[in-house]
Amino acid sequence: MDAFFASVELLRYPQLKGLAVVIGGGRRKVDEIIRDQYSDLPLSEIPVDAFPLLKDYVGRGVITTATYAARQFGVGSAMGMMKAAKLAPNALVLPVDFDEVRKYSRQFKSIIREIAPLVEDRGVDEVYIDFTDVPGGQREGGRVLARLIQKAITEATGLTCSIGVAPNKLIAKMASEFNKPNGISILHEADVQTKIWPLPVRKINGIGPKAEIKLTKLHLHTIGDIASQEREWLVDNFGKSYGAWMHDAAWGRDDRPVVTESEPVSMSRETTFERDLHAVRDKAELGAIFTELCKQVASDLQRKGYVGKTIGIKLRYDDFKIATRDQTIEGHTADARTIRKVAGLCLKRVDLSRRLRLLGVRVGKLEKAGSEEKTAAERASYAQTAINSVAQSEPEGTLDLF
DNA sequence: TCTGGGGTCCTAGGACCC
DNA sequence: TCTGGGGTCCTAGGACCC
């Protein structure tokens, strides 16, 4: 989907179309303040100058999406808000509305599935589609079907998307970026040398900032540079698995199937504080946040029907270094108190003398609730959970923090 | 006043078991 | 010139993606 989070906001506020708008930042519902102020007007008639500017933004956070007009200023996804404000001070800024984004995400995916059922979810704004066997899918090399999908999505939602058509996921992903926004690009195996090899290595899905740095040091800048290396040389420099994969990727080789069903492995909640906190000095505040995160994970698990048996925490210190600790328990759980207790034990095992920027709670080794093998200990813990939920005796925030 | 939140997968060492 | 060879599970960290 093209500039998905921003495009979703523009559906509500069409008066912002064509303007530099960035979506992101903290939890403050800036737009609700505007809405209250202009509650007598429909959203689409709220004057443009009522919207907050990036230069007035305070707080932490990054840009989730920028409109194409905003990208002209050099701002884009994952950029810190403060840095973005320097580049585009007069861009408008709106917070992320996840409920709204998820609504449109479900909608565009279901439209695609009606046309081509083999769809792999790749997050909120992306999918892979295998339309090998869709009737008419091969007409004009896939262009007819791609157009049909674009048209169906735009008619139903007002949103646009870009589609890459290719013999495999790796090339299709790269092709999808060739004609943004609202574009279609069709690549064949024979196009790899002319269309893919000149691209920088970072364009390969799976080569990130670290691998790029290492490749640059080895004087490899383009995908073609990688392709021209001996496979063995790449294996020697990047390891057996990653080196071989990199060689295949540079040659456009990828045999991964489109995976239509998958089970979650873990669920987590984390939060970056508005200011760095200290485990001792800010104990009460930190404790309340910690408990809240545990409750959120528990409720996510329960709502989606999962239980997990590895419980862990994540800290980010003020220097951005990350520490994680986890502990596997006897039985599976989705109980907030159990999670809170085990996560609390994990917290005792990390350095808490430094200032913290982020705290997270994670539950892994998930199973569908009810289907997991139950141990005696687990049955006992279920009984305890039931007792807890009936008793509800302990008021909020009275649990020990560490 | 740089740098969010929710994920997956991989690696590597150690414990433990047969 | 002591102490094999698998296998699985657990844990911590890190790269990468959307």
What would you note in describing this structure?
There is one protein chain. This protein is α+β, with helices and mostly antiparallel strands and 402 residues long. The chain has 4 domains: 4-96, MutS, DNA mismatch repair protein, domain I (3-Layer(aba) Sandwich); 100-192, Alpha-Beta Plaits; 198-250, 5' to 3' exonuclease, C-terminal subdomain (DNA polymerase, domain 1, Orthogonal Bundle); 266-391, Dna Ligase, domain 1. Helices cover 39% and strands 18% of the residues. It contains 15 helices and 11 strands. It has helices spanning 4-12, 30-37, 68-71, 81-87, 98-115, 143-157, 169-175, 192-196, 209-217, 223-227, 231-238, 240-250, 283-304, 336-347, 376-391, and strands at 21-24, 63-66, 92-94, 119-121, 127-129, 163-165, 184-186, 266-277, 306-317, 322-333, 356-368. The chain starts with a helix and ends in an 11-residue tail after the last helix. Mean pLDDT is 93; it is low at 391-399. The chain binds a DNA duplex (18 and 18 nucleotides) through residues 24-26, 58-64, 77-83, 96, 122-126, 205-211, 239, 241-242, 264-272, 310, 312, 320, 322-328, 358, 360.
